[in-house]
Design goal:
CATH class of one domain: Mainly Beta
Distance between the termini: 23 Å
Strand order of the largest sheet: 1-8-4-5
Structural class: mainly beta
Largest sheet: 4 strands, mixed
CATH superfamily of one domain: Immunoglobulins
Number of strands: 8
Helix content: under 10%
Order of helices and strands: EHHEEEEEEE
């Protein structure tokens, strides 16, 4: 049984943003600028000039960035984004990267958590995991009869809302398959 695999996807933030022409606007008030995928704490510089290119009207601009879900998660554990908070880091030494810990609801600073739980009962094999509910993480259950073969998406029905009370932002999911299937299963996450 292979528990999981993850892929961290973060689009790079552009170095600058183009604003639409503001010609004919006398004073700039209540201007809202939106930027997506800007890491928390990033400072953005914004300048306003008149159409003649001279004597810019100086306005106080305050930009607040909302942390990406992953950034907020590692920050909640007091991890440094450049070292212990990096997606590939493993600060608790449990052989699970921060990306895996984030996707499957375990702690990056305590190596005692389980990524998936497996049980057998009554001729059935059950795999249970925590899944993020942020809408930015995609989970796929795959199967193969032979480990050296390709993995395919599983037709097993994923059940939701089961298990003990999950941590905030997560939900329990599980699949149950007959032991007679004799297959390997894995759960992967991409965000």
């Amino acid at each position: 049984f292979e528990a999981l695999s993850t892929t961290l996807v973060k689009a790079p933030t552009p170095a600058s943003y183009s604003l639409p022409s503001l010609a004919g606007v006398g004073a700039l008030t209540n201007v809202v600028l939106k930027a997506s995928k800007v890491p928390a704490g990033t400072a953005l510089s914004v300048g306003f000039w008149n159409t003649g290119g001279t004597a810019p009207a100086v306005r106080s601009v305050s930009i607040t960035s909302t942390p990406l879900p992953y950034d907020a998660w590692f920050s909640s554990y007091g991890l440094n984004p450049a070292t212990t908070g990096a997606s590939g880091a493993d600060p608790d030494g449990d052989s699970l990267s921060n990306a895996v810990e984030y996707a499957f609801g375990t702690s990056p600073v305590n190596g005692s958590g389980e990524v998936v739980k497996t049980t057998t009962s009554g001729g059935q094999f059950t795999i249970q995991w925590l899944q993020r509910m942020d809408g930015a993480t995609t989970y796929t259950v795959q199967e193969t009869a032979i480990l050296s073969s390709s993995w395919t998406n599983s037709s097993a029905v994923v059940q939701t809302g089961i298990g003990p009370t999950p941590p905030t932002g997560y939900e329990w999911r599980k699949i149950t398959v007959p032991l007679t299937d004799r297959k390997f299963y894995r759960v992967s996450a991409t965000f």
